[in-house]
Amino acid sequence: MKPLLTLIMATLTTAAFAAPPACGSDALGTSRTLTLRREAAAWGTAQHAALPGLAPREVVLTFDDGPRPESTPLVLKALADQCVKATFFMNGEPLRQHPETARQVRDAGHSVGMHGFRHDNFSQMPAAAQLADLDAMVAAYREVLGDEPAAYRFPFLAEAPALLAALKDRGLTVMSVDAGAEDWLPNQTPQMLADKLLGQLAKSGGGIVLLHDAQDQTARALPFLLSALKGGGYRVVQLRWE
Predict the structure, then answer these.
(1) What is the tally of helices (H) and strands (E) in the chain?
(2) How many independent structural domains does the chain possess?
(3) DSSP-assigned letters across all residues of 172-233
(4) In whole angstroms, how large is the CA radius of gyration of the chain?
(5) What's the domain range around 233?
(6) What Cα–Cα distance (Å) separates residue 236 from each residue in 79, 109, 200?
(7) Is the pLDDT of residue 71 over 80?
(8) 35, 41, 64, 133: which one has the fewest Cβ atoms less than 10 Å from its Cβ?
(9) Averaged pLDDT, 13-29
(10) What pLDDT was estimated at residue 9?
């Protein structure tokens, strides 16, 4: 029995050391999880109805345009340091180019949606090209993540009728936004990004937040942004699809 007991103790010790450290009471944290049905819905007040089930000052953090090995891991670290879960809307080309980074996002417990195979403005493209891009995006998602996608965000939020109809036929949820930091604009300091984000949230009262994990300035500023959200009394809700 002694060798078996030794093996059990060694296993438990290894598991203990492998477990991620718990966040302190000063962390922003994830207050709860909101589980949505896999359906052809559309949320985000920039273009659609408000996401149902969110209370005032609750936010859903979302990141677009990745995965990008130079910046996405920094975003993941900032989120992990604050015990925050988010949703990443990935493009198909970098998804295929950097599958290990995409799986790192998924394995960290974040939700993953789609953002077009290429980051094109579909409102300016023929319908056939829009549908071909969607097919390529879905194929890349399945290939890299081994799962069926549930949600889609249009690049530039440029929604196009043909692609909207195709997403509806496939039962995919369209995610727009409620607030953001305009973090694609160059040469912004963390304070500038925080001021924009909190200013927009003051108007919307909360909701779906748009950021970009492919932006170096966003990755560097994210610890400051998360601290600003906590200081502003906002609570993070993670999205899941059943």
Answers:
(1) 8, 10
(2) 1
(3) PEEE--SEE--TTSSS--HHHHHHHHHHHHHHH-SEEEEEETT-HHHHHHHHHHHHHHHHTT
(4) 19
(5) 40-241
(6) 11, 14, 16
(7) yes
(8) 35
(9) 61
(10) 38
